[in-house]
């Protein structure tokens, strides 16, 4: 089995399916993300990331726009 | 409607939940029109309260603002906590979203920390069939061991069931025994409650604060929970349990399938198309607000204000000109200023509420974020700032869409630097007077200077207000047709709240300004206002202004269009052609240019100042706004004069 590579959400491309491995953000951002369903192990689809402007992702039925700062602190692997 | 539920011994029912779950529709269905809108103490968040009547028994219903968690990160989250602590609700309806059951259960688990009777209400159950998601309500109730009511505002499903539960509330939920706490996180809480309870009564509020926001507290019990890894571990363990429950009660057919919202979003959040749509929507909003409102303003002005003033002048108090003047020029004119805002605000509120309810507003923030970041502002500020071009009053109020407190404040203080249509009117009338054929060029120059000042102020304000980079975690809710009735009701309440909180101030100042501009002499030229102008003349010398220009500028504080009227009165010719001639002969084009700059940048009209006070809940910020605009306007004026003198 090939080793799955950990990368920042910021570096994912539109259309990728990924799973959250770690979140390195401030406590209050962590808990807000948790309130939106973004926790370790959550699977998500990158809806839009073209390097400029916010990154749009979908976790289950929830769509979220994240700033670059947030997307740098969320580490994911492809699924 | 007259009721004061706070003073009654009605049972209090709180409605809480995350944003975009349709809390307000549940609240409205239960209370009908028996509701009142106010403010949460010290906050700029609307407080909705209403009465639910079930066969003669009355209940006080409180619609608490939506919050993603119960960490006091935002005003909304703090309000939920304060409400539970201070109002001690007899029952809490925790509204969830039937499609987002995991998130809703996470929020429910936080609400369980407070030892209150709870009902879990997954809302928008009618929308499930189209999404391929199923939800087994009975199974969920069995697992959670609290009442669960599937609800739909559209089909009115769940109302009877909810009313029955309100009549016979369940016992308080003890989090320690609940399935949501059967994990390591639950164990931490149990320990915490035992520790906290050692000294007497268990303060669940404190316990919840310690758990949800360990960094904010400094109690001995927090020590073990103080670091971030514990927070993450707690969240994970809660979600593990939640996943098990949700797997048992909710299913989704095809996870990879794109919903219609996803498909629409491919265009709406697209860089090119999205920007085009934002521009079109803004243009539509702008033109609707002002095009629909201006004719109504005209009708109000002609048939109410002018009619009243004519009749007062003709028929009333012929022997007492003081009372007649006060009535006609002070009170009725002041009331006219308030009335003039009503159609603008009604249309504006209505359209904004429609956009917000449809889910589109969040997309505007996404598209505009890139550009507004350059100014240090979040994307959502684009909407109020753009609206400021029409009128600063709805723009300041519209800054509510900005979530972060500091960014909202920056947006509010920045709004008066956006030239409103009244200021453009002054510019368009006076530019040809001062510059003749060069008027279009000079108009553009004035606007360019204003734009530059705006950019510099934006950078300065955002830099000084918040050091941290604006964070962006924004939910993009599903698109749906706005609920017309709900939008209409909210609009009506917002307009009433505006009149209630701003009208008396505008009226009072209108009377004061009438007094200052009428007494002690026979007209504006011999008035207190003119005396103030003459007194300040030496100070205004660096600008090249005499007292007459100063008085005209001050008159613009009631409403900017007054500048031209005041010039007419001061120079003794109120016809446009006559006034143009006199001004051309009396004021050099250099001074004219500086006067135009100042009329763009000087203190915004009083209504804006009062709205700044209303929206920030602090006179300090209203004064800050006055000082900021005065200082910036005068500085720009002096610099311009110096530059001109070197040319």
Structure description:
The complex is a heterodimer of chains A (79) and B (647). Chain A has two helices and six strands; from the N terminus they run E-E-H-E-E-E-H-E. With 79 residues, chain A is an alpha+beta fold. Chain A has one domain (6-78): SH3 type barrels (Roll). Chain A has a six-stranded antiparallel sheet with strand order 1-6-2-3-4-5. In chain A, strand 3 and strand 4 form a beta hairpin. Chain A starts with 5 loop residues before the first strand and ends with a strand. The mean pLDDT of chain A is 88. Chain B has 647 residues and is an alpha/beta fold. Chain B has three domains: 5-251, P-loop containing nucleotide triphosphate hydrolases (Rossmann fold), CATH 3.40.50.300; 271-437 and 466-496, no CATH class; 501-646, no CATH class. Chain B has a six-stranded mixed sheet with strand order 2-3-4-1-5-6, sandwiched between helices. Chain B is elongated, with a radius of gyration of 29 Å. Chain B starts with 10 loop residues before the first strand and ends with a helix. At the A-B interface, helix 1, strand 3 and strand 5 of A face helix 3, helix 9, helix 10, helix 13 and strand 9 of B. Strand 5 of chain A pairs antiparallel with strand 9 (473-475) of chain B, so a sheet runs across the interface.
Task: List strands and helices in order, with pairings.
The complex is a heterodimer of chains A (79) and B (647).
Chain A: E1 6-8, E2 17-23, H1 27-35, E3 43-48, E4 55-59, E5 62-66, H2 68-72, E6 74-78
Chain B: E1 11-17, H1 23-31, E2 35-39, E3 46-54, E4 57-63, H2 75-87, E5 91-97, H3 101-111, E6 118-123, H4 128-131, E7 133-135, H5 137-144, H6 159-167, H7 184-197, H8 204-212, H9 228-249, E8 250-252, H10 260-268, H11 271-315, H12 321-358, H13 361-373, H14 382-387, H15 392-398, H16 405-414, H17 421-435, H18 439-465, E9 473-475, H19 484-518, H20 528-536, H21 547-555, H22 562-571, H23 576-586, H24 589-601, H25 606-616, H26 619-646
Parallel strand pairs in B: 1-4, 1-5, 5-6
Antiparallel strand pairs in B: 2-3, 3-4, 7-8
Helix pairs in contact in B: 3-9, 5-9, 11-12, 11-13, 12-19, 15-25, 16-18, 17-18, 17-24, 18-24, 19-25, 20-21, 21-22, 24-26, 25-26
């Amino acid at each position: 089995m090939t080793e799955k590579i950990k990368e920042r959400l910021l570096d994912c491309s539109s259309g990728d399916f990924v799973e959250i491995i770690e979140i390195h953000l401030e406590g209050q951002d962590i808990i807000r993300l948790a309130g939106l369903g973004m926790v370790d192990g959550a699977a998500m689809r990158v809806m839009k990331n073209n390097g400029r402007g916010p990154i749009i992702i979908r976790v289950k039925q929830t769509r979220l726009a994240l700033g670059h700062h947030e997307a740098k602190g969320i580490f994911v692997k492809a699924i | 409607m007259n009721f004061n539920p706070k003073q009654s011994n009605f049972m209090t029912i709180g409605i809480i939940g995350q944003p975009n779950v349709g809390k307000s529709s549940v609240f409205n269905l239960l209370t009908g029109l028996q509701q009142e809108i106010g403010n949460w103490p010290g906050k700029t968040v609307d407080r909705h309260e209403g009465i639910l009547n079930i066969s003669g028994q009355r209940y006080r219903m409180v619609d608490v603002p939506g919050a993603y968690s119960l960490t006091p990160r935002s005003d909304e989250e703090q309000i939920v906590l304060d409400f539970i602590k201070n109002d001690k609700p007899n029952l809490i309806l925790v509204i969830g979203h039937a499609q987002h059951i995991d998130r809703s259960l996470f929020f429910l688990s936080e609400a369980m920390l407070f030892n209150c009777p709870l009902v879990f209400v997954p809302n928008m159950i009618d929308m499930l069939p189209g999404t391929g998601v199923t939800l087994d309500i009975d199974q969920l109730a069995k697992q959670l061991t609290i009442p669960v009511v599937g609800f739909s505002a559209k089909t009115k499903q769940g109302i009877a069931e909810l009313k029955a539960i309100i009549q016979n509330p369940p016992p308080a939920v003890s989090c320690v025994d609940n399935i949501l706490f059967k994990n390591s996180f639950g164990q931490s809480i149990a320990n915490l409650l035992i520790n906290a309870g050692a000294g007497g009564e268990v303060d669940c509020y404190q316990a919840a604060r310690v758990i949800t926001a360990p960094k904010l507290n400094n109690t001995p019990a927090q020590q073990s929970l103080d670091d971030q890894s514990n927070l993450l571990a707690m969240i994970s363990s809660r979600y593990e349990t939640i996943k098990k429950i949700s797997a048992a009660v909710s299913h989704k057919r095809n996870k990879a399938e794109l919903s219609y919202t996803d498909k629409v979003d491919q265009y709406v959040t697209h860089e090119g198309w999205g920007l085009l749509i934002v521009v079109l929507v803004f243009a539509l909003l702008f033109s609707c607000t002002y095009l629909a409102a201006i004719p109504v303003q005209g009708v109000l002005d002609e048939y109410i204000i002018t009619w009243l003033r004519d009749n007062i002048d003709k028929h009333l108090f012929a022997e007492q000109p003081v009372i007649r003047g006060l009535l006609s020029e002070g009170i009725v004119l002041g009331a006219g200023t308030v009335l003039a805002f009503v159609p603008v605000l009604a249309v504006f509120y209505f359209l904004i509420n429609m956009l917000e309810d449809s889910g589109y507003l969040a997309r505007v923030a996404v598209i505009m974020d890139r550009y507004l970041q350059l100014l240090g502002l979040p994307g959502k500020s684009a909407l109020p700032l753009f609206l400021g071009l029409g009128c600063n009053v709805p723009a300041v109020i519209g800054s509510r869409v900005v979530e972060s407190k500091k960014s909202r404040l920056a947006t509010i203080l920045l709004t008066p630097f956006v030239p409103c249509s009244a200021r453009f009117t002054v510019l368009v009338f006076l530019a040809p007077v001062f510059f003749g054929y060069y008027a279009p060029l000079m108009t553009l120059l004035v606007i360019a200077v204003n734009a530059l000042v705006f950019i510099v102020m934006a950078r300065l304000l955002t830099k000084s207000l918040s050091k941290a980079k604006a964070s962006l975690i924004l939910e993009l809710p599903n698109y749906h047709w706005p609920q017309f009735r709900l939008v209409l009701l909210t609009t009506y309440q917002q307009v009433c709240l505006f009149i209630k909180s701003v009208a008396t101030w505008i009226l009072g100042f209108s009377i004061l300004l009438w007094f200052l501009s009428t007494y002690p002499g026979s007209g504006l030229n011999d008035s207190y206002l003119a005396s103030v102008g003459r007194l300040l003349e030496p100070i205004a010398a660096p600008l090249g202004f005499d007292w007459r220009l100063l008085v005209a500028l001050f008159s613009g504080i009631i409403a900017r269009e007054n500048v031209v009227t005041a010039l007419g009165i001061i120079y003794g010719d109120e016809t446009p052609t006559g006034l143009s001639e006199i001004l051309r002969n009396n004021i050099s084009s250099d001074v004219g240019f500086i006067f135009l700059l100042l009329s763009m940048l000087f203190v915004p009209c009083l209504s804006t100042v009062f709205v700044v006070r209303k929206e920030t809940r602090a006179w300090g910020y209203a004064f800050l706004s006055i000082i900021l605009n005065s200082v910036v306007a005068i500085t720009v004026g002096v610099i311009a004069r110096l530059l001109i003198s070197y040319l």
